[in-house]
Amino acid sequence: MSQDHLSTPAKLAAFAALLAVLFGAAALAGAAIGPETEDGRATAGHEEEKPDAHGGGHEPSAAADPVRGLAVAEGGLRLVVEDPELRRGRTERLAFRIVDARGETVRRFDVEHTKRMHLIVARRDLTGFQHLHPEQAGDGTWTTRVRLDDAGSYRLFADFSHRGTARTLATDLRVDGAAALRPLAAARSTAVSDGGYDVRLDAGAVRPGKEANLRFTVTKDGAPVQTEPYLGAGGHLVALRDGDLAFLHVHPTEAGHGDAIGFAATFPTEGRYRLFLQFQHEGRVQTVAFTQVVG
Ligand SMILES: [Cu+2]
């Protein structure tokens, strides 16, 4: 915990990293307009931006804490949904903001996976997955159109990076009516995407706390499919834990060999997880879901 453990070059490196962070924040603040400038100054020395003593030069990432999406507020930021009540089967406007500790709307976000804001919606029974990219208005409000065809309680995840720290804040959406909740699908190594592509998952034995390599291969009518880049990678994967819908941070990896889409994921606990893979082919995004047993 003490810097005394560090050698002089390590100290210098840590100092340089701190300077880089501070100058980065200052540059952001300098480029900002209006109240955001004040916001930048106020948080330039915030604890979250200082490199950890044990950080070892890693950029701040969620790798050390893979579970996210259980809280509506974290690290001084809070997710505020304008109206969390939606009508079943109607396309409705969904508006939300990220506010800071003073209640001011945050307007600046880092680009992650080619976007500044990723919105994930899933019903509590892990059905009805949607991945949306809302538009940001000048005042910082994010809006998107969304249609939820089934009644029930949904989790809304706002996945973003702010000042170099990745965050996933989550809250509930309600769709009134009788909900026909479904049990989690059994674990199988093959599944069919919403557009009719066959997808195979090779994960091997997955143990809690150990990095697992998830490899997905896509075929159509028995022929291998070379997927197109999607959000700056071979595909996009969201993993949600059965029971509390904890949101796992997953890193795309180089596929290695063949046409597989690869991800590295560390599942924090035993249990069942629902994996939502999205990939693109012939300009269309496909979604396919798997149940992964860990333990
Ligand atoms: Cu996204």
Task: Write a concise synopsis of the structure shown.
The protein is mainly beta and 295 residues long. 11% of the residues lie in helices and 40% in strands.
Would you report the number of β strands? 21
Q: Mind telling me the C-alpha Rg?
A: 20 Å
**Beginning-to-end CA distance, first to last residue:** 32 Å
How many H/I helices?
2
Q: Helical proportion?
A: 10-25%
Helix/strand structural class: mainly beta
What is the H/E order?
Answer: HHEEEEEEEEEEEEEEEEEEEEE
Distinct ligand kinds:
copper (II) ion
Largest beta sheet, briefly? 6 strands, antiparallel
Mean pLDDT: 83
| Shape summary | globular
What's the quaternary structure here?
Answer: single chain
Instruction: Please mark out the parts with pLDDT under 50 across 5 or more consecutive residues, or reply none.
Output: 18-63
Strand content: 35-45%
Summary tags:
6-stranded antiparallel sheet; 295 residues; mainly beta; binds copper (II) ion; 5-stranded antiparallel sheet
Structural write-up:
It contains two helices and 21 strands. It is mainly β and 295 residues long. Strands 12, 13, 14, 15, 18 and 19 form a six-stranded antiparallel β-sheet that branches. Strand 18 (250-253) and strand 19 (261-266) form a beta hairpin. The chain is globular and about 50 Å long. The two termini are 32 Å apart. Residues 113, 115, 118, 131, 133, 231 line the site of copper (II) ion (CU).
